[in-house]
């Protein structure tokens, strides 16, 4: 697949300052004695340089190869070529790990400060670590390659060249920081670069527009189908040169890696559509986490029974909702018990009876500690069952999900779609599995429809689905990842090393002698 580009035509609007030889970059001509332009003496019979030769000398698309020793991919070359022209507006959406920051943004910043004296390049991103940990390290490497650092002053998020040109980076958390910048220098230039633009509030872009930059580059892996970045590719497309880059356009992203991601998340997963195909995720349709066809396929063609770990999951409830106990043995859901009970003590008693009946130990049991779940988990611990506590709203293991609950639903749904688990025959469970919708944050993180939204659609809380998908995703085995112990119950490596060192010291001393003495 090729990168897509709009057909807008640009014309040169700059007179660029020729780059001196790399060895002389740190020592430009004195301002009091400007370099004389025109044909040098003795050049009367010399052929004029071709248009291509002039382009390779000065234009942005050739800068990485000529000055940084890098050969850009075709799509990177095309993006830089579009940004080369004054008054350009370039929007790039690209697959994760494509090299948009390290090659495109870093090259643009260095080219701008070297070519346009006293100019300014302003860089921001949806998260500051993109500036601090991705863009600026790439700029520093480029500076070292070009001159070994001569002529440049590089700080944590600042850059200054000997000709007075500057580049700065800042967090996009405050739109006011994007205001007040102006075109500068004899060539009247201001370049604005917004990285991870999907995570930026629209106010950042409106502030940027008021600065009237001479060049704009906004780029990101795609997120939700909303906001300024999305509209650059849709509603306001005629104002931009737009590029779409897939993982297949990036040779360093191997086919094995791409296939692994697709196998893990599913070809139609919003994550894959974004991170591999560079597509925005539209959750405005009736998109659900698990489709009816996928569920029916798993029910009609279940996998062979496989032994494995036993994992129980409890979804606690009070009042009108159900408390649900689910047990998975290997790749099969073997038990699903539900009840409604206002008396929490009776619920605890019933759970302990279930644990004993199935011979479960605490390490095999997981429970939702959100809301009522917290005191219920505490009560079980007092009764001798310190079960694994799962916070649905907590941090996911995979940062591409909004929270742990979203991660569990999506990964377990993938297991069902792949026909890797044997489900229990329960009509209410099946209805809950196929009615919860996908939601995607503006930063592209995959989430779930809130339960209050489900209620507004006439749907009850999906308690049975929570428990079954929890049993599939937790522990080890069917589509899940090992639940990790919290920091207070899992020793760190340093703590283990300290214990080992202390044991070694004690074992080498005579009895009764203090190792610290």
Short description:
By secondary structure, the protein is an alpha/beta fold. 34% of the residues lie in helices and 15% in strands.
Descriptive overview:
The chain has 17 helices and 16 strands. The termini are far apart. The protein is of the alpha/beta class and about 525 residues long. β4 and β5 form a beta hairpin. α3 (about 75-85) runs parallel beside α4. It has two domains: about 5-15 and about 60-250, P-loop containing nucleotide triphosphate hydrolases (Rossmann fold, 3-Layer(aba) Sandwich); about 285-475, Nucleotidyltransferase, domain 5. The protein is elongated, with a radius of gyration of 30 Å. The chain has a nine-stranded mixed β-sheet with strand order 1-9-2-8-7-3-6-5-4, with helices on one face. The protein has a five-stranded mixed β-sheet with strand order 12-11-10-13-14, sandwiched between helices. Strands 15-16 form a two-stranded antiparallel sheet.
